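Ticket #510: bound-state structure for protoporphyrin IX containing FE.
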Amino acid sequence: MIHMKQDFQGMPFATTVALGGLSLLVYFFIRGFISNRRGGLAKLPPPPVVPGLPLIGNLLQLKEKKPYKTFTKWAEIYGPIYSIRTGASTVIVLNSVDVAKEAMVTRFSSISTRKLPKALKILTFDKCMVATSDYNGFHKMVKQYILASVLGVNAQKRHRCHRDTMIENISNQLHAYVKSCPLQAINFRKLFDSEIFGLALKEALGKEVESIYVEELSTTLSKEEIFKVLVLEPMKGAIEVDWRDFFPYLRWIPNKTMDMKMQRMTFCRQAVMKALIKEQKKRIAMGEEINCHLDQLLSQAKTLTEEQIVMLLWEVIIETSDTTSITTEWAMYEIAKDPNRQDRLCREIQNVCGSDRIKEENLSKLPYLSAVFHETLRKHSPVPIIPLRYAHEDTQLGGYSIPTGSEIAINIYGCNMDKKQWERPEEWKPERFLEEKYDSMDLYKTMAFGGGKRVCAGSLQAMLISCTAIGRLVQEFEWKLKDGEEENVDCSGLTSHKLHPIQAILKPRD
Ligand code: HEM
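RESOLUTION: The complex was predicted; output attached.
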């Protein structure tokens, strides 16, 4: 500090004047820039408003738990960007690829923060996961960890054996079922979920378990019960609606039913996760190291707390177990419904693989299989709305001004059903991805994986598992829907789960 003062005093007068002049210029330039920007924004109109009721806004119009469908209908009336009110909050809803990309890429710095409802806040231990954290130092650190030990290209190469085992197990169980109960419909989801959950446990903790004693619950849980506590119940809990989310000024009023339910759910989840981790720590103490997220976090992430480690491991389990299974089930539903396209896919696989079983190495030579995957993601977007973001400063989107404090809902389902972008969007038509305008390597064309800096970190794993599974299931069996199953197209949940598990009749191919 003293040196600086001396240096300044020692400056020639002319230099001081020149520097002073320069500072003034810079000052006026910045002021002009800011006021232009504000003026520019002020001149922009606000987005169209969907009319609602005083106080509650549009809440009544959204009371069924599939807001993405209502948002998409509104887009036909109010355009690709409009604003709604959910109680005290203003939500800007984006329904086209252009405005969604603008939000995720161009204006990312103004809307990079997450806004979570109370249920998700409790479930995620206040944003303590890669997918739900704000874009900050914690996010960058934990994203690097998950990529290095589970989801990045090299980590995926190391976990290849688990994926191969999973596909082999599914195929064997289907053959066994078809042999013992020929022409009887099978609940494919139950089988697939159990196998992918096993894979998730191996990636997160190193080993699969068939049962575990949970001290805090004084009981032993089977693998199916562990799946329920770690995956099914939290996914249900994530869409619990707490009216206090919409009226923050009433937050002081207790909502005991909701609070107790969420507390019980998180308590059980933590208890099971801790029991699973304890078991694996015994393995590590005995000198058995495995290439998995737990071992990596324990050896590298010295600054993380025990609770944070639990949440980051649970993240791998829940994200691996849910969306990939949804995509594969919807793909099999569409394939089973459409014998011509099923034949086309089967012939493509036969031409490339001959009598060998399809492997991950073959995927790049199977454009129709890739098209089936992308078309399924488009029509049945597993994450229909990106977890809400929040404008922490004034910004603009689609030529409209967006004030600080607005919540931003990116309606991926709406983008993928946009009639201006997709011809007959309601039809499942994989051929559309064989047209030249789509690059087969472009994962973002359906927006299913989001985009920009927060793009899905698990897209490679999802693609590898889902494409190999779909290919193998079609290569080995002829799929046909059980009578009446065609109509079962309802979905439920935060992710677009098929409401009724697919019921298909399988016939082994010769
Ligand atoms: C078909 C399957 C999947 C779909 C459609 C999907 C979709 C998405 C979407 C829409 C986002 C939010 C992007 C955003 O906020 O802009 C996301 C984020 C994320 N996904 Fe996936 N996902 C899938 C599979 C997976 C899998 C298997 C994992 C494995 C653990 C995974 C891990 C993540 C993570 C860690 C993030 C957060 C990335 C970040 O915030 O930086 N996803 N995913």
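RESOLUTION NOTES: The longest strand covers residues 81-86.
TICKET STATUS: resolved
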